[in-house]
Amino acid sequence: MSSSKASPVSPLAPLHVPELPPIRGVRLATAEAGIRYAGRTDVLYVGLDAGTRAAGVFTRSRCPSAPVDWCREALKDGGARALVVNSGNANAFTGLKGREAVALTAAIAAKAAGCGDQEVYVASTGVIGEPLDARKFEGVLADCAASAVPGAEAWAAAARAIMTTDTFPKLATRTAEIGGVAVTINGFAKGAGMIAPDMATMLAFVFTDAALPQDVLQTLIAEGAADSFNCVTVDGDTSTSDTLLAFATGAAGNAEIAQASDRRLALFRAALNDLLEELAQLVARDGEGARKFVTVRVEGAESDASAHHIAMSIANSPLVKTAVAGEDANWGRVVMAVGKAGEPADRDRLAIWFGDVRVAVSGARDPDYSEDAASAVMREDAVTIRVDLGLGEGSARVWTCDLTKEYVAINGDYRS
Amino acid sequence: MSSSKASPVSPLAPLHVPELPPIRGVRLATAEAGIRYAGRTDVLYVGLDAGTRAAGVFTRSRCPSAPVDWCREALKDGGARALVVNSGNANAFTGLKGREAVALTAAIAAKAAGCGDQEVYVASTGVIGEPLDARKFEGVLADCAASAVPGAEAWAAAARAIMTTDTFPKLATRTAEIGGVAVTINGFAKGAGMIAPDMATMLAFVFTDAALPQDVLQTLIAEGAADSFNCVTVDGDTSTSDTLLAFATGAAGNAEIAQASDRRLALFRAALNDLLEELAQLVARDGEGARKFVTVRVEGAESDASAHHIAMSIANSPLVKTAVAGEDANWGRVVMAVGKAGEPADRDRLAIWFGDVRVAVSGARDPDYSEDAASAVMREDAVTIRVDLGLGEGSARVWTCDLTKEYVAINGDYRS
Predict the structure, then answer these.
(1) Considering only CA atoms, which of B28, B116, B45 is closest in space to residue B83?
(2) Catalytic hit among A125, A201, A249, A295
(3) Model pLDDT for residues A253-299, shown as the tens digit of each residue
(4) Cα separation of B146 and B28, whole Å?
(5) How far off is chain B from A79, nearest CA to CA, in Å?
(6) Per-residue pLDDT tens for B192-226?
(7) How far apart are CA B145 and CA B138, in angstroms?
(8) Pick from A305, A330, A307, A295: which is nearest to A390 by CA?
(9) Domain B26-285 is of which CATH architecture?
(10) Cβ A413–B93 below 8 Å, yes or no?
(11) What CA–CA distance (Å, rounded) separates A68 from A70?
(12) Domain boundaries, chain B
């Protein structure tokens, strides 16, 4: 019964959406398959040249969607010729019918692309628990395969077709070189909280013309995800369908490098990480109801893992998030969130900053703390909360947004 | 700069507040010490006869308040002659000054009660990070000690004096017998979310005239807390100051029993657990902004601990809680919350009920599921969400409330 009425664009949206250059070996097309929405595209088809390798990172949910299961299986071969993404139905918690639907989707796409079923990757986002009628892809995907193109407009259309309650499309591009050969990386994502009325999921897709062995691509994308998408949270809720897929066509013709740790991949790795970071930030900037973009930095922890856990405890705390929404430099709630994380912490060594304003030090309020200065920080669109635990060298940085009445309105539906 | 303007009483408040009988050896008094509030009581003094034993359970926060540290230390002796509770200031994250303030509070109370400092227990709730001026207790506590009385009005006043943003006082009473001797148990609590504008903490105090060795009282109260206060959540945020203290005066004159497991304590244990359960439920019913009281039951898990973890994942999920607020039987979000808990779960064996309506079975929507019937369940003031994992015998039950715009308004402050 949920509607998908358009929300106003997030005040945190970037001023300009980048134009993406072509990636040799990648062609895109979108269509209206009528999965759930009327009057908008809801299917994305991406054709990939022979020789493309794929890698992926998926939700840690113990109840993953059927497409997630499918992609994990397809990655065992690792070749890729097509990607199909639909919005409107997540094909999650759909039992045997869900497995049949994703298999039929892949078969239709494989026929259109002229490849094997296991060379097709599938991602779905939308309602959970509704059977997905994959027969709607018949014809649609063949048309897409015939009409797919590499240009900037196709990339922009792709980012729009996979949106659910996102208020703006999320695209990024980078260039790098490998052994003196120029390569390009494009990516797009959808997010928008975790779930809007019945909608779910963070999806991101990255494409490059670099030639990379599958295991190298997998290592690079997993490391990149750890520092980008795994550092973003809107409400702490984990989708059944989160998917990050990377495709390397090899069309750039660089010499392949066998080890992810090889220094000749340093520029590529940096560019990829930067792109993933940009996309992850865009997801937080489009969190449901978001009015503030929040960066949480934790330093001085016993380890990086401990710092990350504490940073997530702060970023997921409803009380911290509502305080940010209220533009209240409420560092007592930050202490609370540090304490509840269960990680090593010494109350009497804690220091806390909002922006550059230190509000607490040595386990008590900073005697020099100016409420005016802190309030000025809180009025900005982007707020950084920094905590120094004073115990060790561990650090972490995560992104989130504030918790507003609009989040409750979007997700509460209020049908009564 | 927060205000404590009165909120309307929660629609989930009980129709009647119970009248508490006297407990031999317990006398109570309240006063206005002007800690933070104007025109209301903010201090509770409880005098306890010689021979009273104390036990306690405290927050798991790594950043506990100074009073929590004090009580943990006092329990090493275990004797109790006085309890002092103040609202308005939590004396948390106040550094050395905080330790001095709680020591001064205890010294003032000890002088008034004619006992040792270590026989005084202290609990504080309110603002974090503001120094507490304990000199305000001078005189006030001596007056309280002189005027403390055992009657029903004193109990009611006690429950009101410790409120912060609670919208109603929370009291409960039970009777039992130990070896044929009648005993009484009284208790009161404050909660109201975790933190309202700058306010924090769940506090609960239980008093009995039963004679019980300290270790037995400690075992009983810890076991009771595990199944009551540790099963209630409003927003998943953990206070620095959560405190449950139990006091046994021994005035009933029953024969002391040396083992908590002794069958002669069965009736007392049952009555105590029942009282703790009632108080814990009252806390959820007064959750900030709550309009629905939610019980989450998880069955068929691999262990009770696993079931509890999954139940808490459901109860703390913003998306589940906003769906309940919207009266939406959104079982897809329950699947999500099961999946994110990280506990053993088999998507294809899951079954989910709202009230008596089974909405999902065998990993997919229940084919016989009536949306009308589920919607009728969701319109009730009290909603039960039940999940059967189909894996084992582990079960758990927790209580929570919905997440409404009022929660955000109360905690967001919106000073701008």
Answers:
(1) B45
(2) A201
(3) 999 999 999 999 999 999 999 999 999 999 888 888 889 999 999 99
(4) 10
(5) 28
(6) 665 433 444 689 999 999 999 999 999 999 999 98
(7) 12
(8) A307
(9) 4-Layer Sandwich (3.60)
(10) no
(11) 5
(12) 26-285, 293-412
